[in-house]
Amino acid sequence: MKKIFKIIPILLFPLLLTSCNLFKPATNSNSETTSVDPTSAATTDVDGVSISIEGSTQATIGETIKLVLNMSDVSMIPTTITWSTSNSSILARGTPNKNDHSCTFTGASEGSATVTAKGKLKNTERTPFEITFDVSVSKPALTGIKLNITEKTLGYDKTLNLTASPLPSAADLPDINWSTSNASAGTLSATTGATVTFTAGSSDTNTVITAKTSDNAFSATCNINVQAISLDAYTLLFYVCGSSLESGSDYSDYGYDPETNPMGCATSDIAEILSTNGQPEGVNIVLICGGSESWKNTKIKAHQDKLSYWHVENKNLVWDKDESLANMGASSTLQSFLEYGFEHYAAEKYGLFMWNHGGAMNGCCYDELFGNDSLLNSEVYNAVTTARSNQGISEKLEFIAYDACLMAVQDVAEYNSYNFNYMISSQETEWDGGYDYDAWLPTLYANPTGVNTVTLLTKIADTFMDYFESAGYHDQTQSVYDLGKIATYKSAFESLASGLNSLVTNSTKLSTLKSAVKAAKTYGGGSYYVYDAIDALDRIANKSDFSSLSSQITTVKNALTNSTGGFVVYNRCGSKTGIVGSCGLNIYCPSYGSKSSYLSQSHFTSWADLIYKY
To answer: What kind and span of H or E run contains 105?
Structure first.
């Protein structure tokens, strides 16, 4: 096996957000309308040439208007006219049209903005001109309402959140009244408001939930079928963003080419899943595949111009459906996949696998068909939260697994704690093979209803580590987290960060703190600014400037480590010098301003405030 990381090469930094998972692609029903009939004009006179802008002085949010520049002497109209808007957050500029000397502008929010057109006349003097035109933007009138769900089969005693929204989306939502056609089907949490929760009863029946504006002008409905639903034991959801790990687009030096010789890392891992014997009736394996220029797997390759959905049955990859190609680095794509899995493969427990490059706070699942856009912490959170709400999944999902590099960061774990019970990930970059699927899947297959989650995730970690250790690669790491315990760690860490902040009162102490953190074990070659948490804490504790915080540092360490009941319940690291002793968790500490932007993806606000002092 060639030694390649699940990470986009550092050489691509100037062009791309870096990533990691080395080696191992909608139309608004309220579409914009374009106003072309001029309703007003602004005029000015330059060197005897009358210049005007004609068009609508009003627009609604989401509406596009067209403004046209005219001159009394058309021979004076320049080839290039510069159009601008005084406030793009109110009125956004579109694309100028040189043929008819026009430009489109779209209403973005309520307010007023001034459009300016500049240029130079085509006279001998090339006389400059400038003309302005004022446009006011208002909210559109309400034309209807819609519900987030229009039809749903709901199990006994399950809940479903229903939300009404205005049409068009920029319109004001009036007061909403809710009702049910069959009170015996279940109960509504409220009869008014934008959002209500329906709780199903315990008998087979149907009901229609109606949302209606308070003036009775508009309404929308959701048909709910309440029935007993037999849940499978486990559904594993694989979000397979193939990217360059599948196509080989970034690895031509190794002989890979998207057209003639795809690298096929995703294909290899899918093959491991398909080769595993004994898949029981109650275990579903569901995949979405995309994000790559090409695929080595012939079945997926036939659908590579789409997002393709699959499931595993009798050791075969079975096609479910295609969707239009969409960005797998977008929250909406992950949400759609999860909702599909929840609806069609309902189970007592769910495990989500994020397969692709990973880049710590830079995110994971980099879609090479969409500029290597990735899923940030908040995007994963929003996707899972919304999908659970829309599908009535009140319980947290059992685990999230990152078959990707560098995702064992405290901020990643904390964000996931709101939607998952457990998490497994790597502090360090992963080699191309990723998880050893055919080595740990038998553990789940043997006892899907009774398998202990920590036991299962430990098996994933151990089989991964065993494989690479036996192959001579001793620099790998894996960590398993009990996310239910992270709140205690976060509280302790934030208290410590506040204490550090109060002590860092001058540049000398700031330099002392920085040198302590930067001397700690780092991962991903140091380019991702992630450091081993325990090593960093120990180095801070050894600085006399911070000796008064020794007890707080001990509290943080106890809330982290397995031996003291911390939330890192299992971790393992390779035998390579510099890796032994990894604690199982990284902290994020960027060195310069541009990387501090990722602190927006952190709920560790006191730590972020401290870092901003850098």
So the answer is: strand 102-107
Q: Provide the token pair at 57.
A: 């002085």
Q: How many CB atoms lie within 10 A of CB 165?
A: 17
Verify that 158 and 127 share a domain, yes or no: no
**Residue 176 pLDDT > 80, yes or no?**
yes
Task: Name the pairing type of β-strands 195-200 and 159-167.
Answer: antiparallel
C-alpha separations of 199 from 19, 150, 184, 203 in Å: 42, 16, 11, 12
CB atoms within 10 A of CB 30: 18
Q: Do the domain assignments include residue 201?
A: yes
> Which pTM was predicted?
0.78
Same domain for 101 and 48: yes
Q: Are both 40 and 122 inside the same structural domain?
A: yes
What's the burial of 606, exposed, middle or buried (CB within 10 Å: 0-12/13-18/19+)?
middle
> pLDDT (tens digit, 9 = 90+) per residue, 78-107?
988 999 999 999 999 998 999 999 999 999
pLDDT digits (tens, 9 = 90+) for 504-538: 988 899 889 989 999 999 999 888 999 999 999 99
What local confidence, expressed as pLDDT, does residue 562 receive? Answer: 85
Residue 582 pLDDT class (50, 70, 90 cuts): confident
Instruction: Label residues 428-460 b or e (16+ Cβ within 10 Å = b).
Output: bbbbbbbbbbbbbbebbbeebeebebbebbbbb
Q: Is the pLDDT of residue 466 over 60?
A: yes
Q: State the pLDDT at residue 30.
A: 37
Residues 190 and 129 in one domain: no
126 lies in the same domain as 150:
no
Contact 595, 484 (CB under 8 A): no
Report CA 599 to chain centroid distance, whole Å: 15
Give the pLDDT confidence of 136-162 residue by residue, as tens digits: 999 999 999 999 889 998 889 888 889
DSSP category for residue 296: S
Quick one: pLDDT at residue 578? 62
Burial bucket for residue 318 (CB in 10 Å: 0-12, 13-18, 19+): exposed
- Asked whether residue 592 is domain-assigned, the answer is yes
Neighbours of 539 (CB within 10 A): 20
Q: How far is CA 225 from CA 49, 154, 210, 220, 270, in A?
A: 70, 6, 14, 17, 36
Length of the chain counted residue by residue = 614
Structural domain for 557, as ranges? 486-612
CA nearest to 20, candidates 5, 35, 32: 5
Hey, what amino acid is at 352?
A: L
Which three-class secondary structure string do you get for 348-395? EEEEEEEECCECHHHCEEEEHHHCCEEECHHHHHHHHHHHHHHCCCCC
Pair (68, 184) in one structural domain: no
- Is the confidence at residue 390, as pLDDT, over 90? no
Indicate whether 269 belongs to any domain: no
Could you tell me how far CA 305 lies from the centroid of its own chain?
Answer: 22
Whether residue 118 lies inside any domain: the answer is: yes
According to the 3-state scheme, what is the secondary structure of 514-540?
A: HHHHHCCCECHHHCCCEEEHHHHHHHH
Q: Are 108 and 127 in contact (CB under 8 A)?
A: no
Q: How far is CA 98 from the centre of its chain?
A: 39
Same domain for 590 and 533, yes or no, is yes
Give the tens place of pLDDT for each residue, 190-231: 999 999 999 999 999 999 999 999 999 999 999 999 999 889
Is residue 473 pLDDT above 50, yes or no?
yes
The token duo for 428 is 């360090």
